[in-house]
Design brief:
By secondary structure, the chain is an all-beta fold. It has one domain: AttH-like domain (AttH-like fold, Beta Barrel), CATH 2.40.370.10. The chain is built from no helices and 24 strands. Strands 2, 4, 5, 6, 7, 8, 9, 10, 11, 12, 13, 14 and 15 form a 13-stranded antiparallel β-sheet that branches. A hairpin with a 3-residue loop joins β5 and β6.
Length: about 350
Amino acid sequence: MQHVEKEITNPVLLCNRKGQLNPEAIGYARRPLIQSNLTKNFMRKKKWNYWCVFGEDILFSAAISHLDYAVICFVYMFNYETQRFFEKQVSIPMGRVEMPENVLESINFTNSNLTIQALYADHETKLSVEIPDFDNEVLHAELYLYHPPEDDLLNVVIPNNRNVFQFTAKQHILPTTGFVNLGENSYAFTPDYSFAVSNYGRGIWPRHTKWNWAMASQRLGHRRIGLNFGGQWTDGTGMTENAVFIDGKMIKIHEDVIFTYDLQNLKQPWTLKTKFSDNVNLTFTPFFTREAKTDAKLFRVEVQQLVGYFNGRISLPEHAPLYIRQMLGCTEEQIAKW
């Protein structure tokens, strides 16, 4: 059985004056109407801005995160053909970085080892990354992520209770131009075939957390298609982060999606299916695994992110079935003690 989640259509604050979840913020919105005014909750606030850009030759990703007691930033690059992969991470215990309260705002992290700057203006994010030593080479990236003003965003507040909750904003199929230079190699991005995904998160998480996330943003035929599915962390909350984007229009999926995969061998095919129906019936076949671990005294985060292809069918209300064939994307399992 399914239920219909509340759609938010007016601006709302995420928290009340006590730092607890504002009940009026529970729901989803197609526009960035939720202001993440996190306060109080000493040492428990989690904030991040993450970008993943699917180019024709490489996947390029960057993130700025603040765990209240540490700043963690990373950049990684994966070449589809050669499968060359490298990741650079900087962790600063008790570090500070200004994390914006709104989804479409600029953010900057500057360090001698790694600089990430995302400047937002006029429906465009300029993502600049500088790393003097990235696998023994200099990395310089300048990417321009266009946010079509008519496109929907997935903004959703997931309530565990008044004191434990998460606001996530996912933007899909953002046409991207620019370049990534690594040493003597240069990779160009063109807006017809290069698309970015932006993941903005602000919340108060439980000490122990586990989640799945699956996403893809590609051109299938003449249409821009985005997929976003989440599992485990949303179960039983009455809300999901499940949605499909077709040429910028979001179709919300109110049903939980179950991720099934081999815990002993994540490179085996995964299945993603809606819990009570066959509306989502996808197989994900990985061809590369990124493993990242951060282990410190106060926290431990372990992520296994897989790159691969989605195949299957999605049935959407008032739409013809959406057939997915060899759609490049990612799934992940993340476990955190934070």
